[in-house]
Amino acid sequence: MKSFIAIAVLLVASLAITTAEDDFCYSNVVQACSNSKAGVFDCNSKFGGISNSENNLNAFMKKKLATSYDYMLLQTHFDSYQKNRPGFKKLFNGLSDESWDETVALIKHITKRGGVVDFTGFGTDRLSAVGSEKLEIDELHALAVALDAEKKLGNDAIKVHQHASHLNHQEGKVSYDPELTQFMEEKFLEKQATTIRKLSGYANDLKKLMSVNDPSLNVYLFDEYLAKQ
């Protein structure tokens, strides 16, 4: 008898929770079933502050994708018979693949959290040294361009994380979302720091090697070093 009463109490409590005003999906289904013209708008996977961070995620995703394409152009540039730099080709190929994989991860996360992927304005955040019709850039300048790009992406990732880390209430919108901050930390912030450190080391080493009158042999040996990484 006691077990029956306990089950009945749980069922009543469950029904009370289901019919609460905050259950928008349930309310919309009831409305849709009672009115053929009504739509079900709130049956989605959005919760927390993801709605207020969706635009930031889309902007970051488009920058990651554009950077991946730019690194691909740099890869083909150093893979030409004129340049013939297999080490730099490998470096920029790896950077392009990383940016592509991270773009896919962002797209999956946006859709998982109930958002919509928006490619409007894609291509406006191209690397200035790569976006020209005729790509002319040497090894040291290519490293500098990549280093600047990764620093910008790192700062963009911090902005997304910062926006989702605070209990901001703007016109009734909540931006705080610990799930999103964890995602940014695990997938981007640590990786960005590692990539920036690696590129800054390469740039400084190559700068020293090119400080001689004829640096061609030094650049060749440095390229061989990159090819072995």
Q: Which radius of gyration do the C-alpha atoms yield?
A: 25 Å
- How many separate domains make up the residues? 2
Proportion in β-strands: under 5%
CATH class of the largest domain: Mainly Alpha
Number of helices: 7
CATH architecture label name of the largest domain: Up-down Bundle
Strand order of the largest sheet: 1-2
Give the overall average pLDDT.
83
Name the helicity range.
55-70%
Order of helices and strands: HHHHHEEHH
**Uncertain segments:** 4-21
CATH superfamily of the largest domain: Ferritin, core subunit, four-helix bundle
Shape: elongated
Please give the number of β-strands: 2
In CATH terms, what is the fold-level topology of the largest domain?
Ferritin
Ends distance = 72 Å
Q: How is the main sheet built?
A: 2 strands, antiparallel
Global structural class: mainly alpha
